[in-house]
Amino acid sequence: MIDKRILITGCGGMLGDALFPVIKSNFAHVVATDIDVSTNWLEKLDVRDTTQCQKIMSSFSPDIVFHLAALTDLESCEKKPQEAYNTNTLGTKNMAMFTEKSKSTFIYISTAGIFDGQKEFYNDFDKPNPINIYGKSKYNGEIFVQKNVSKHYIFRAGWMMGGGPQKDKKFINKIYKQIKRGQKEIFIVDDKIGSPTYTVDFSKSMLNVIKSGHFGLYNQVCKGNCSRFDVANAFVKFLNVQDEIKLIKVNSDYFKKEYFSPRPNSERLINLKLRQIKKDIMRDWQDCLEEYSDVYKKDLNEKI
Ligand SMILES: NC(=O)c1ccc[n+]([C@@H]2O[C@H](COP(=O)([O-])OP(=O)(O)OC[C@H]3O[C@@H](n4cnc5c(N)ncnc54)[C@H](OP(=O)(O)O)[C@@H]3O)[C@@H](O)[C@H]2O)c1
Predict the structure, then answer these.
(1) CB-based burial label for 73 (10 Å; 0-12, 13-18, 19+)
(2) What would the pLDDT profile of 261-287 be if each residue is shown by its tens digit?
(3) Is residue 22 part of a domain?
(4) 75 C-alpha vs ligand 1 centroid, how far in Å?
(5) What CATH number should be reported for the domain holding residue 68?
């Protein structure tokens, strides 16, 4: 056990679900917070509220702050840009500012969505150029942290997979919900490529890098690259429903009403810096998806 004090914001979400057990089993004192206090291991903290941020920072005095809190729904961010900037940029500023004041370490989770997707893949040194509100609000957070927090880590994730049927707000659970509803045909976009990122590997890797003391910014995604269709195809196979479900390839225009936020054509990241410091422990996305699918397989069988 490491005798350090850890504060986590936004811990009730997809990533928090995997990060909390990793941190709990490595550090002596952990306080996990979220705006939505749905379980008894979470304390209330709204990162937009400067007073609340200041209060918890001075009462708990963390050595390390994992800042996960964010609005992650791209369409909500487009509809309510002010709320997106309030949470994703100003909320980050609040937590980063108090962390710097107390000379602690700040960990910020960023996204492949800060790139415009014009290139096939992006390494840690490529220049961001976000094309939607979510990406802009997250990139502004990155800039603030880099400029103002002496001891910081920034980890950029790709297409996040994690949290299971209850917490996963993203692609895998959207596919799963259609399968569970009994849909036999599922339409999947085939014109977007990216790097799946398993929350379990992402959490373990953050800890691994932090223990090394190599501060800085890192792309941190699973190995291998794929399209959304490849992910859906692998997922139905892992669930063993490939003979019952027909996946139909479409381009993004098919969903343009529902998913109206602009999305980069490529969100593929390369973990160049992690490799350089010999810390790239992220597994292949298919191995991770196979492992992650178990929780859905169980849920599906319980239904039957
Ligand atoms: N999901 C992805 O594909 C993805 C990809 C790259 C990077 N990231 C980044 O990874 C981090 C973790 O996201 P996640 O994937 O775990 O998403 P998530 O499931 O949406 O978790 C974020 C958590 O933050 C909470 N939150 C929202 N506003 C808050 C506020 N004002 N104060 C405190 N907490 C607040 C959310 O609560 P509500 O659910 O009530 O809003 C949610 O529990 C975020 O910084 C995100 O930008 C995510």
Answers:
(1) middle
(2) 999 999 999 999 999 999 999 999 999
(3) yes
(4) 14
(5) 3.40.50.720
